[in-house]
Amino acid sequence: MSDTVDDTDELPATASDFADAYPEVWTQYADLGKACSEAGPLDGETKRLVKLALAVGAQSEGAVHSHTRRALDEGVDPAALDHVAVLATTTLGFPKAMAARSWIRDITESE
């Protein structure tokens, strides 16, 4: 997460409201996200795909939408995003993988 208090206008309403109400907490949270991102050797696309996979595993529709949107903004191939859902099939099960695929397609098919 690289968002800062200054760019909360691009956040979903709930996160933006939180950032406005608790700017110091939001800044610390954003700084932790940046530190985690910079802590290892993964390249940007790989990190984005991992974050998407974590969101899929958590079955968080909002996070899947967010990471899909960010991935597209960063130039990640939509087929790679769809592949994340396909890979979830044997780990999470077919119904959860298909739910994730539908959430990914909510964004990839609207862009």
Structure summary:
Helices cover 74% and strands 0% of the residues. With 111 residues, the protein is mostly helical.
Please describe what this structure looks like.
This protein has helices at residues 13-21, 23-38, 44-57, 61-73, 78-92, 94-108. The chain has 111 residues and is mostly helical. The protein folds into two domains: 5-38; 44-108, Up-down Bundle (AhpD-like), CATH 1.20.1290. Helix 4 (61-73) crosses helix 6.
Strand content: under 5%
CATH topology of the largest domain: AhpD-like
- The string of secondary-structure elements, in order, is HHHHHH
Indicate the CATH architecture of the largest domain.
Answer: Up-down Bundle
SSE inventory with pairings:
Elements lengths: L12 H9 L1 H16 L5 H14 L3 H13 L4 H15 L1 H15 L3
Keywords for this structure?
single chain, 111 residues, mainly alpha, 2 domains, 6 helices, 0% strand
